[in-house]
Design goal:
Shape: elongated
Largest sheet: 4 strands, antiparallel
Mean pLDDT: 75
Helix content: 55-70%
Number of strands: 13
Distance between the termini: 106 Å
Radius of gyration: 43 Å
Oligomer: single chain
Length: 636
Amino acid sequence: MDAGGEDDVHKYSRKGKFSNRSKSVSISIPVISNELNSGENDGVLNRWTHQKLSFLKHFTFGVMKPDEKLVQLLNQFVLVSCILAIFIDPLFFYLLSMKKDFKCVVIDWTMAITLVVSRSITDLIYFLRMLVEFRLAYISPDSVVVGAEDLVKSPRKIRSRYLSGFFLLDLFIVLPVPQIVVLFIQPNGLTSPGISNAKFILQTAFIIQYIPRLYRFQPLLAGQSPSGFRFESTWANFFINLLTFVLASHFIGSCWYMLTIMRMNRCLRDVCNNSTITDCRKFIDCGRGNDYGGFEGNLEIWNEWKEDRNSSACFREDGINYGIYVTAVNLTTEKSLLTRYVYSFFWGLQQISTLAGNQTPSYIVGEVFFTMGIIGLGLLLFALLIGNMQNFLQGLGRRQLEKSLRRRDVEKWMKHRRLSEEIRRKVRESEHYSWEATQGVDEEMLMENLPEELQRDIRRHLFKFVKKVRIFSLLDETALDAIYERLKQRTYNNGGTILYEGGFVTKMTFIVRGTLESIEKNGNNKVLLLEGDVCGEELLKWCLEDKRNQRKQGNRLLSKRTVKCLTSVEAFVLRAEDLEQVITLFDGFLKNHRLQFAIRKKSPYWQGVAATTIQVAWRYKKKRLSHARGHTTNFL
């Protein structure tokens, strides 16, 4: 029993050790897995940090190309911010309005804060573009002469070029002049009598800063990239000119409103200088229009100012000679910002359109110069807009005009040759379909002026349908490029014949659009040919066979079928001479058994031939079997 007990003790002790080990192992597995996961996360975090730091290093110290995604994305943001900026700046003129009851000038503080924030955002985006200019490679002017367009990537040359170029102008553009005027100068006009004059003078700083902004933003608005390449289209030019006209109306209307405020402010100051009311200058500026606590100490003088008849004349259209600002006198007292802006924009649009023909300025020199500026700007915009509008309309109707001239020339030629009416009808149909297929563009001449590499890329894009053809699905890109170079575009009328039985097969026709019908002898085998199919593929097989001697003797392949157009057909053709050149260049590859198998098995024509052969053999077999049964019956 002692021995058995010891064995039991050892047994349980071993079992306990094993169970403890299993517990320790089971506990250690998730710990190890957690360590592995934490290691992987640390690796991912380190890679992400290294990637961002390398990107920041490249952005800060490296040279960027104009075609990089970051530069293109920044250009898009800059373009949007430029459009917003040139529309935001004139809106600062609408911050001021007149209080008719209190006979003073007030500022819309809520709108002022909104415009300051918006202007600061656009300035920040443009400042980022300035930083990019210090690291943005540019095209060497010397390389443009020879057409090489080499990029200059030297940081020193890039910095010196920008510093000696538009840096100072860009720096002046992003100066926070409107923010300073609105936040620090205009609100202080309540107590200082000279400040009110100063704030109107500083309003002109907007104009001084606005003109350089237009000069720098114009290339971006016109679609010119930093690399100097322009992306132009007829519709883009139209909208750019329309935007220019709207922008000019927006600017002129805003200036007209601001000058009206200045004229009324001048009228009030003249009345104050000529009146017996003491300290009336401080009543002209009401600040934000919601706090008149500074006037309570002089309440009697303030009431006297409000009831003064001479100052009330400044708020009547017939009070003084306002000249071209007469219609804006009552507009300045409107509380609605939208009403003031819309009417001012309408006035600017009207004066530019009519060249200020319905306006008579007063004898004030500044008003006369402003009217002259409107006339000059209107003439310039009309000359620019009418010229571009004419080009736009001509661009839209140029193809139609060319089509009409082409049709007229064809009609004269057919009349001169005395063609029959049936032939004339077919010629008209062919010309119409050919024009619709090509849109009047001579593609061959257009392709000749392009680089060879670009020509190859364009052909690969245009002639993707060649790969849909079952015969050429096994060809490599080199052989396909040789075929692409020799393809010619052709159009066929409804009812036309591409191949006829007994005629020579002189070309392979690749169908791009339309439906054809292939008919064998006696109409036994009819096959429809659709988009992606090919007509005349037997020419390829005939050229691949070892018949060079026959071809040298002038033998030609005869067609065993007739192919007619069931609809108007657009296709590309490969002539027999061009096909022989391709075969000569790629003779070994074109004799590949896989290609031969594709010709034999995948072609609709050869499938039809095979089906016809099987049908004939089956009919012959049935006829022979029927004869055999007849002989057996007669014998019995």
